[in-house]
Amino acid sequence: MRIGLGLYPDEPAGKLIATAQLAEELGYTMLWMPDSQVLWREMYALLGAAAVSTRRIGLGSAVTNLITRHPSVAASGFRTLDELSGGRMRLGLGIGDSAVATLDLKPQRVEHFSTALEQLRGLLAGGEDASPRLAFGADRPIPIYIAASGPRMLALAGRLADGVILMNGVAPELIAAAIALVRQGAQEAARDPAKIKVVIWAACHTSVDAVKYNVARTILRNLPGPLGPLTRETAEAVRTRYDYAQHGNARANFAELIPDELVSRFAFAGTPNEIAGQIAALECIGVDEVALAIPSAAPSASRDAVLEVLAPVLL
Questions:
Q1: Helix H or strand E segment including 308
Q2: Which of 159, 199, 226, 247 sees the fewest Cβ atoms within 10 Å?
């Protein structure tokens, strides 16, 4: 299984590029970066800097959207990034989360997302009949991954995407339920489900408290699979206090609402061996890769320290 880093761009740009280089040196295979223009540094600029500062590690968005980024902007941006990286890019897309919420905008409706995605694909393909079409590139495909958690987006990923980024926690039964919907969507579109890559995005830290910020966001999603009364009750409490100004922040106030009992179902946490065990439990149900979203603002170990302590066990 591929082990990647989910890198929140919430530190100075130079520090982030140093972390990208460290991840490559340690043997992590992928670096995924989220896009939220109000909260964090500019993803496109940082991915470009990472592309010319590394040689082997894969690079991708996890995720951008087609509201704040028009399909033509995303297509041109990723074609340029693919040139800079020598073909190492993956384009992760979603309907919009913090990038739109912090502007008081709504997530994209699934049908509108599907239409925008088709426009993006046409631009990236560079076909003669595409209108509009990019004036450059199209020499190699850029894999498109769809971030999904609810049933409709999971099925859409199966129908249209090269891969899916699941934000459904880490419990095998929850991930299995999500993968089943992706595969069902693929079969309905006469596609081979086995060709759709499955990536798990989840918070990761050696401190249980350091991942609770992400558990809080995850349990607010429309998750298929068995949740249980504690998850539902906690989600209702979080819903009244969730603050997008603290999105992705390990010190978020709403993290205190998450009981320890929920953490192992929705995040990677504990000793390196315990985290390795959580990851190993996912490989047999069809997961190809995990993106370890390690927060920078945790009161205990730093992001780089967690990367280093996990590497000998996971890689």
A1: helix 303-314
A2: 226
Structurally, the chain folds into a number of domains equal to 1
Across the range 110-132, mean pLDDT stands at: 87
Per-residue pLDDT tens over the stretch 141-169:
999 999 999 999 999 999 999 999 999 99
d(CA 175, CA 265): 10
Instruction: Print burial letters for 261-277: b (CB count within 10 Å at least 16), e (below 16).
Output: ebbbbbbbbbeeeebbe
| CB-based contacts of 164, cutoff 8 Å, min separation 6 | 145, 146, 147, 148, 154, 157, 158, 182, 196, 197, 198, 199
Residue 280 located in a structural domain: yes
Could you give phi then psi for residue 104, rounded to 5 degrees? Answer: 60, 35
Q: Average of pLDDT values for 63-92? A: 97
89 with 163: CB under 8 angstroms? no
Under the banding of pLDDT at 50, 70 and 90, the label for residue 297 is confident
Task: Report in angstroms the alpha-carbon separations of 69 from 58, 88, 98, 261.
Answer: 22, 21, 13, 38
> Helix, strand or coil for residue 136?
coil
What are the structure tokens assigned to 167, written together? 């934000």
Select from 219, 202, 114 the least CA-distant residue to 166: 202
**What range defines the domain where residue 289 resides?**
6-314
**Residue 313 amino acid letter:** V
Q: Quick check: is 1 in a domain?
A: no
For residue 131, being part of any structural domain is answered with yes
Q: From residue 19, how far is each of 54, 86, 90, 240, 244 by CA, in Å?
A: 11, 20, 19, 35, 25
Query: Are 205 and 301 a contacting pair, CB within 8 Å?
Result: yes
- Is the CB of residue 119 less than 8 Å from the CB of residue 71? yes
Dihedral of the CA atoms 238, 241, 246, 250 (nearest 10)? -40
136 vs 199, more confident: 199
Q: Amino acid letter at 61?
A: S
